[in-house]
Structure formats: structure tokens, C-alpha cells
Amino acid sequence: MAETVITHPENQEPSEFTLATLDWLPWLAPPEEDALTERQRASLVDAARSKSAYFRLLARDPDILEARTRTDKDIFYNTSSGLPRAERELSAAATSRHNGCIYCASVHARHAVTYAKRPEDVQRLLDVGVGADLGERWNAIIAGAVALTATPIAFGPEHIKRLREAGLDDADIVDVINSAAFFNWANRLMLSLGEPAQREQ
Amino acid sequence: MTNPDIIDTLAGLAPGSPLATIRDRKPVTRQQAQASYVALFEPADSGDVTLPERFAVAVFVAALHAQDEIAAFYADGLARSQPPEGLIAAIRTQGALARSSGPYGAFPKGRLSVEDVAGPIFRVTEPHRGVLGARLAAALAHTHLLVFHPRDASAAALQELLDAGWSNAGIVTLSQLVAFLAFQIRTVVGLRALAAAGT
For position B126, what pLDDT does the model report? Predict the structure, then answer.
């Protein structure tokens, strides 16, 4: 007999992009915390993620979850070279804004604020969208992320030229590519396996 | 796991080339992107999603991105996975029929509704439904949703997969497949563009 989805008829989904912390409700049953196998637990990488319905659900396929998580962390946290963390988060937030992942955009817009200390500009990205004028360097990064997010992909020599003119070298541009490409992965998981919810204050 | 690095291969980056050298500086990113490919396409245990299903979805995703070379790479994998008769041709035909331009879709009703963009909903057409079977036909419809209009995703879309015989774990794997490929293809296309731009 077929399994059934979980629906959340009482949930009022957030209907705008926000810097506020949101919750996320799964459409498929995740394993209960105490039912996680050792392999599933290891695939979470951070033990605290066993509290998250999202990561427990993804742990139903532990090998790809673990590789996904380690890819994610290195693309964003490894600042030994390349683009500053703030601008990787900007690329992730712009990608999420363009794909329409309200949950992902909230997380990475908050990170962008933390690292860039430009809360008004990040808020404008959320409010106005990816066409907001945030100064040429940020505009160029956002335009690159948006072009990579299009299907078919629209990223080409004009985006690279603009990024270079804005002061990015090739290692920085690789980080724009990696962070925008990664959020095309993350957005699709978050959007398709559950829905965002306002967090109880 | 003696594979060459798939992203370098698809992007045409030779070892020691400027961009391969930049990638070498972040060995974990490189290794884990490769481990992701291996987890999905050379799984230790294919679980609830067969290898022909995995490669069929990959050929379709690459076709939706209009990336012929990447589609050919995954079609080779599909051919090696001993697919049912006619499957490769059916996937290629459906891939050509399903092309669109994204991201589109609707937001939850409210202030963002002015940003809603309309676009097609894809379903596999006859005569290929028979060749593909109910599971793969449902998977391709879901794949099109995730590639082009992920913000239209819904619990009802997952119910269609369950009704077609997909398990919870199988849906997680399918979602990871499509989502990973969206990443891999963008990384490859981005690196190719950067390599072509010269210095």
C-alpha cells in the first residue's frame, strides 16, 4: 500500500521574503530522532541536526546527504582563499530569491547581514528582488548568480567581464559559481520536500 | 572509486590548468562534489531507485538544461545500466519535448503574487508512457517541476510519486538526484565559461 504525504492545512505559509527565522514542515515523514540508524546519524555531520525534520528526512538517503553537507560547508566556510564569506552568502541569498525559496533566502540573507554588516542592502534584495541596485560589486555578483540560476543557464562572458571589472579574480568568480550552483541544489530540496512556516514568537 | 573528477571532465579542465589549480585549493569541495556523484550514480546499495532510473533522470535533466554533452555523458551511463528496450530514445524525445525556460512559478498568495510567472506543467505523453512505465513517467513530471518551477512544488506533487509506486526514501533520492544535477551542471557550465573567457 502506498505511503501518504503529510499536509499542514493550518499552516499560514510566509508570503514574503524575510530576515526572520522560519520553521520548516516536512511533507514526508522523517525518521524519528531515536529511530535514526548509526549511518543516518553520521550522515548528519553535525549531531545537533538530528533535531531538524529537514535533515532527518534527507537522512533517508545518508550517503548523498553526507556528501551534500560536506560540499555545502566547504563552499561556504572554507575562506582560505577566494571570495569573502559575506559575498558567498549574498550569492546564495540572490539565488534563493530568484528561485523563490523563502526559507533558504531567510537563512542566507541573515548570514549575509552578519558578515557584510549591510542590513539595509540585504533587506532591499529581499524586498525589491534581484534587480535591486546595491552598488556595482554586489550587483555584479547577484547578476552572475541569477544568470547561473536560469534554466537554460544564461551565464556567459558578459557576466565574467562584469565580475572582473568589479574587482573579482578567477578564484573569487569560482566561488560565485560554486555558491550559486550549490543553492540551486539546496533550494530544490527545501522547496520540494516541505513548506516554510512562521516561527512561534 | 578510480573515477576521474567528473566536474573537471565535463568542464574540459585539464589537470594543472589554471581553473583546475584553483579547484585544487579547495580539495574538500572537489572531493565531496565527486562523492555526491558517486553516491547517486555508483551507490553501494541502489535502495529504492534503480540505476537505469537514476541515469534516465540525469539524461532528462541535462536535456532540460540544453546541455547535449552532459546528456550524452549520462546517456552512456544509462546504456551501461542495461535499460529496458527503447528507454534511451524515449527519454531523449521527452527531454526535447519538455524544454522550457525557468525559473517560473507562483508564490504563496500575497505581496509576492505580482512576481508570479506562468509556465507549462509537463506530463509524459503517449506513446512513451508505456515504454517508461508509471514510476519513471511520474519521476520525469516531477523532475520537470524541480528543474523549471521548483517554487510550485507541493505535497500533492509528492503524492503523485507515492501513487506511482515511489517510497519516501525513493523520493528523497530522486529529489537529491535532480537537485544535485542542477548544481553539477551549473558548476560545469560556469567553469567552462570562465575557462573560455581567458585571462
Answer: 84
Which residues in chain B touch residue A42, judged by CB atoms under 8 angstroms apart?
Answer: none
Q: How far, in Å, CA of A57 to CA of A53, rounded?
A: 6
Question: Which of B 111-150 lie inside 8 A of A, CB atoms?
Answer: 111-112, 115, 145-148, 150
Instruction: Provide the whole-model pTM.
Output: 0.98
In this complex, the residue of B67, B155, B194 whose CB is nearest that of residue A7 is B155
H/E element holding A23? Answer: strand A22-26
CATH no. for residue A149? Answer: 1.20.1290.10
Cβ within 8 Å, pair B112-A82? no
Check whether A132 has a pLDDT greater than 80. yes
Q: Return the exposure string of A132-168: e unless at least 16 CB atoms fall within 10 Å of the residue's CB, then b.
A: bebeebbbbbbbbbbbbbebebebeeebbebbbebeb
Chunked in runs of 10, what are the mean pLDDT values of chain B (199 residues)?
85 97 98 98 97 98 98 97 94 95 97 98 91 96 98 98 98 98 98 93
Q: Residue written as cell 541535462? A: B62
How many residue pairs from chains A and B have C-beta atoms closer than 8 A? 212
Give me the pLDDT at residue A63, please.
98
Does A49 lie in the same domain as A85?
no
Confidence of residue A2 (pLDDT cuts 50, 70, 90): low
Which residue segment(s) compose the domain that A84 sits in? 79-190
* Contact assessment for residue A198 and residue A12, using Cβ atoms and an 8 Å cutoff: yes
> How far off is chain B from A118, nearest CA to CA, in Å?
23
How many Å apart are CA A89 and CA A71, to the nearest integer? 15
- Amino acid B18: pLDDT: 97
CATH homologous superfamily of B6-196 equals AhpD-like (1.20.1290.10)
- What is the grid cell recorded at B25? 585549493
